[in-house]
Amino acid sequence: MNALPEFLRSLAASSGFSLTILFDAYDRTLFLQGIAYTALLSVGSIVGCLLAGALGAYLQFRKVRFGARLTDLYVQVFRNTPPLVQLYFFYFALGPTLSGAFGSAQPVLSNVSWAIVALTLYAGAFNVEIFRAGIEAVPATTLEAAEALGLNRGQAFRRIVLPLALRISLPSLNNNLINLIKTTTNAYAIAVPELLYASSQIWSENLNTFEMMVILLAFYMLVIGLFSWAMGRVERAVAVPGWGR
C-alpha cells in the first residue's frame, strides 16, 4: 500500500520531480479542499446565473418599461466590465460599505459568498442575452396559440416559451457555463481557497510549480471536458425533432 508513495518520495528526493499531493497527506488534503471549493463556486454560481438569466429574460419578455430598462442596465454593467474588477468591487468596496451601514464589525458576507455573488451576476448578464435570443427565436404564432388556449402571458412564458427557448439556447448556454467554471479561478484574488489558490500554496512550499501546473491544467481539461460532454448529451436528449436542423 505504501510502495507508490515511498517511490514518489524517493523520486522527489533524487530527481526533484515532486508530486507531493500523492505522498504528502497535508498537501493532498489541501488539494482536495481546493477541489471542494471550486465545486462549490461552480455549482452555486451556475444555479444563480441560470435564475438571474431567466428572470432578466422574463422581464424583457413582459416588456414592462421599468423592468426591461433595469435588466438592460444590469446587462450593460456586468457584460462590459472585467469579472475580476467586479469581484474586487463586491469584496473590497461593497462589502465594507454594507458592514459599515449595518454597524457590524464582521463582514456581511464571507469571501466565498461574495465570489458566488460576483460570478452569478457576471454569468447571469450573458444568460439574459442568451435566453432573450432563444425567446425571440420562438415563433410568435406559438405564443399566440398558447394565449388562444387560455394561458395568460406569464403561463405562456413558463410552460411554452421558456422550455422551447432553453432548448434553442443550450449551445450558447453551454459555452457561457464553461467560461464560468474557468472564471472561478478569479476567486484566488480574494483568498478563496479554491483549486488554484490551494495549488499555489503547495508549489510555494515545495517548489514544484511545474508539476502542480501540469496537474492543474489536466484537472481543468478533464472537468471541462466532462461538463461539455454532459451538456452535449442533454442538448441531444431535449432536441425537438426538426427544430433548428
Describe the structure in your own words.
The N and C termini lie far apart (54 Å). The chain is built from nine helices and no strands. By secondary structure, the chain is mostly helical. Helix 2 (25-62) packs across helix 5. The protein is 79% helix and 0% strand.
How many DSSP helices? Answer: 9
Which H/E pattern describes the elements? HHHHHHHHH
Main beta sheet: strand number and arrangement?
none
Rg (CA only)? 23 Å
What share of the residues does DSSP label as strand, in percent? under 5%
Measured between the Cα atoms of the first and last residue, the distance is 54 Å
Spans of at least 5 consecutive residues with low confidence = none
Oligomer: single chain
SS elements, strand count: 0
Fraction of residues in helix: over 70%
Structural class: mainly alpha
Average residue-wise pLDDT: 90
The outline comes out as: flat
Précis, in short:
The protein is an all-alpha fold and about 240 residues long. It has helices at about 5-15, 25-60, 65-80, 85-100, 110-135, 140-150, 155-185, 195-205, 210-240.
What labels describe this entry?
9 helices; 245 residues; mainly alpha
Furnish the topology, listing elements before pairings.
Elements lengths: L2 H13 L9 H38 L2 H15 L3 H19 L9 H27 L2 H9 L4 H31 L11 H12 L2 H30 L7
